[in-house]
């Protein structure tokens, strides 16, 4: 290393290289300036600018490591670190200015560092490539995104739990094929979503673990001849481990797929919840209504009140599923190691996280304010047809094989429908005409509250079972919060 470089005083060659920083970082290899259209087409700055703070944090840790192994002098490190801290302040105050020639946020930060610190900035890239630099920045962002998503999931779970606890014994119809099936409770129905989102939280926790690996020090693909202290950098940046294979480290985007996949399934669950709200708030169901502050109207029909938020949650799930397909398609044909295709990893990942976060937070707010019409739900749950299975099981308890019992009750249902009657209209003599195994208890089966109490089996909608599920739901929320906190 020259005496000029050691002293921190710029030599003529260094000053020339400093002026060259207005060109591309790889301009020494190519003799012609980059076409304006090529620059526009290849720039990712509009997408990856959000990685600026991570890029600075990673660069500061890398610089401290270079100082520790003797590549940087104390003066050089001070100059570089001061410049990076100034850039961090510009980024946080949103005054960081980009240049038309900046390819991405990483070269923008490097260009600005040359402006602030001078040619000594050229020392910072020692022992690293943009390949491992970009992968490190993205993993730092990804860990934080997983935490944000987990916090949002816990909030929605907790809101669902709160509303479920308000309606532990409120009967409503459960549906299959969108047809009334059997009596459940509103609490039981809402707690089903707590379970779904708990599984989403497990997947996001695993995605965060997958992200928690340091690629920095892998270089372009083959590491470095310098004695880089990767463990020190991992410790400074809070990574749990360093990447074991330099080629895999710069090419791996599995963690991004894990996060996007978890977001896609979370959005599918949000879509299903949104669909319930759309159905329940329709006049045909009448089970729920949104306050005016969380509904929209029609530009033509004055009477309309629409659950647009729930519809958008349903619609945007398709976008996030598309993000997952896009990311998988980017990766599927890539040979090792880095290919420029990987520039396209960020847009689907960022969109998936942004959309999922916004949807989780919006649904949390909607669930907290939605009004459930318990009387309408009870009225619908009082349909005697919902007890047809209970009637069949009464026969089973009396020794009738279930398939025979099913056939007997099915025939009774057909007869009552044809006669414009309900199962509750039949007297004991009519039941016994269908089967001598019926006793007087059959005419008492058609109360929805009693139907709930008969379902106090583990996992069922009965009041005592739901009480146990509420306890479990509280534990699931606590687990999601622990995961968000890194526990």
Element pattern in H and E: HHHHHHHHEEHEHEHHEHHEHHHHHH
Averaging pLDDT over every residue, what do you get? Answer: 93
* Number of helical segments with 4 or more residues: 20
Strand order of the largest sheet: 1-2
Distance between the ends: 46 Å
**Domains, number:** 3
CATH domain topology of the largest domain: Fumarase C, Chain A, domain 2
How many strands? 6
Parts with pLDDT < 50 across at least 5 consecutive residues: 1-22
Task: Kindly name the structural category.
Answer: mainly alpha
Specify the biggest β-sheet: 2 strands, antiparallel
Please identify the top-level CATH class of the largest domain.
Mainly Alpha
Query: Could you estimate the helical fraction of the residues in percent?
Result: 55-70%
Overview of this protein structure:
The structure is a single chain. The chain is mainly α and 487 residues long. It contains 20 helices and 6 strands. A two-stranded antiparallel ribbon has the order 1-2. A two-stranded parallel ribbon has the order 3-4. Strands 5-6 form a two-stranded antiparallel sheet. Helix 10 (230-237) links the parallel strand 3 (213-214) and strand 4 (241-242). Helix 8 packs parallel to helix 14 (346-369) and helix 12 (254-280) runs parallel beside helix 14 (346-369). The longest helix is centred in the N-terminal third of the chain and has 37 residues, at 130-166. The radius of gyration is 31 Å and the shape is elongated.
């Amino acid at each position: 290393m020259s005496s000029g470089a050691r002293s921190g005083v710029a030599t003529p060659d260094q000053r020339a290289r400093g002026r060259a920083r207005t060109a591309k970082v790889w301009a020494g290899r190519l003799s012609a300036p980059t076409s304006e259209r090529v620059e526009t087409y290849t720039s990712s700055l509009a997408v990856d600018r959000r990685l600026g703070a991570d890029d600075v944090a990673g660069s500061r840790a890398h610089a401290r490591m270079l100082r520790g192994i003797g590549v940087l002098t104390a003066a050089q490190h001070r100059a570089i670190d001061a410049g990076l801290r100034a850039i961090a302040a510009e980024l946080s105050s949103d005054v960081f200015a980009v240049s038309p020639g900046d390819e991405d946020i990483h070269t923008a930060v490097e260009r600005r560092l040359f402006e602030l610190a001078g040619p000594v900035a050229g020392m910072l890239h020692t022992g690293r490539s943009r390949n491992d630099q970009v992968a490190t920045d993205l993993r730092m962002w990804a860990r934080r995104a997983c935490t944000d998503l987990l916090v949002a999931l816990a909030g929605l779970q907790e809101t669902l739990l709160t509303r479920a606890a308000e309606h532990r014994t409120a009967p409503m119809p459960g549906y299959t094929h969108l047809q009334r099936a059997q009596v459940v409770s509103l609490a039981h129905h809402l707690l089903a979503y707590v379970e779904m989102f708990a599984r989403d939280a497990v997947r996001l926790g695993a995605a965060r673990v997958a992200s928690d690996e340091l690629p920095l020090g892998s270089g372009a693909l083959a590491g470095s001849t310098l004695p880089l202290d990767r463990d020190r950098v991992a410790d400074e940046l809070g990574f749990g481990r360093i990447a074991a294979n330099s080629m895999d480290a710069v090419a791996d985007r599995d963690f991004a797929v894990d996060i996007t996949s978890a977001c896609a399934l979370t959005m599918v669950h949000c879509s299903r919840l949104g669909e319930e709200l759309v159905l329940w708030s329709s006049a045909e169901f009448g089970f729920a209504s949104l306050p005016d502050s969380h509904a929209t109207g029609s530009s033509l029909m004055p009477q309309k009140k629409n659950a647009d938020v729930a519809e958008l949650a349903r619609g945007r799930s398709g976008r996030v599923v598309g993000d997952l397909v896009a990311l998988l398609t980017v990766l599927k044909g890539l040979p090792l190691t880095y290919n420029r295709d990987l520039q396209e990893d960020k847009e689907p990942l960022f969109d998936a996280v942004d959309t999922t976060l916004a949807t989780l937070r919006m649904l949390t707010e909607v669930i907290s304010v939605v009004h459930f019409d318990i009387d309408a739900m009870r009225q619908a749950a009082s349909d005697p047809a919902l007890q047809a299975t209970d009637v069949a099981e009464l026969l089973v308890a009396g020794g009738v094989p279930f398939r025979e019992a099913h056939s007997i009750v099915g025939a009774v249902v057909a007869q009552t429908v044809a006669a414009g009657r309900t199962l509750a209209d039949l007297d004991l003599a009519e039941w016994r005409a269908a089967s001598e195994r019926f006793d007087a208890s059959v005419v008492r089966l058609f109360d929805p509250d009693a139907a709930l109490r008969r379902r106090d089996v583990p996992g069922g909608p009965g009041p005592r079972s739901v009480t146990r599920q509420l306890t479990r739901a509280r534990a699931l929320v606590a687990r999601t919060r622990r995961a968000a906190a890194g526990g």
